[in-house]
Structures are given as structure tokens and as C-alpha cells.
Amino acid sequence: MNEEKEQELQQAEQQYQSDKAEAIKAIKKFTDDNEDGSDDSTKITLKTILGGDILQSKFVLRQVGFCIFVVVLLLFYTGNRYASQQEILLIDSLKTELQEQRYNVLTINGELLNLSRQSKIEDALRSYGDSLISTPGAPLFGIKDQEEE
Known about the structure:
The longest helix is centred in the middle third of the chain and has 52 residues, at 64-115. By secondary structure, the chain is mainly α. 70% of the residues lie in helices and 0% in strands. It is rod-shaped, with a radius of gyration of 47 Å. The protein has 5 helices and no strands. It folds into 2 domains: 1-62, no CATH class; 66-128.
């Protein structure tokens, strides 16, 4: 029974090693300079990744065009966002200016209404001295009630 378990463990270890080798071959296929994906003695290590050797692989070199396209899209996005923020700021400033102008119009209308009252006009004409206009003291005609008739 122990022999069967040992055989199962050996088979599992062999399967693990073969899966590991296939995974390394697949990674090397994407990062290897050889087009056919043949296995050579180079290994993918942290040193090769951090050293920049992976940037010279065919896979990365094939993606340079896409990376440039993404950078151009990012530039357009940033420029568009900046332009839209500038327009929003301009709209806000125009709204506040419009509100101020409305308040000014209301103030001027109130002053004009005050100056156009009959008493103010009479006072202004009297100050010039050449006007004969005055407020009548008696009504222009008499209105009779039915009881008075």
C-alpha cells in the first residue's frame, strides 16, 4: 500500500514538473527572440525582467504600436478634459455676470419708477420755473349721486 502511495506521489511530482516545464515554454514563447519558440538555455528570472531584457522580446516589440496609440488617446482625453473644464469655468463666470446685470436692471427700474411718479415730475418742473402745470385742487367735473338729484 505504501508502494502505491509512493507511485502516486511520483506520478503527481512528474505531472507537476511537466506542467511547470510547459508553462515556462509558453512564457518563453512570448518573450523569446526566436520566432519558432525553440527552447534555449535562457531562463525568465526576476533579474531579466527588472534588467529590461523582456522589453527586447518579440512580443513586446509587436505591441509598441498599440502602446503609442494608447498614449495618443490619453493625450486627447486629457486635452479634451482641460478644454471642457475651461468652458465650464467660463459658463459659471458668465452666469454670475448675468445675475449681476439682472440686479442692476432691477435697481435702475426701481429708480426710474421712483423718478417717474407724478409728484417727482411736478417738483422737477417747479424747479425749472417755466412750467404752469400744477395739480388741480378740485375735480374737473362733479359726480352726483342719485340721492342728490
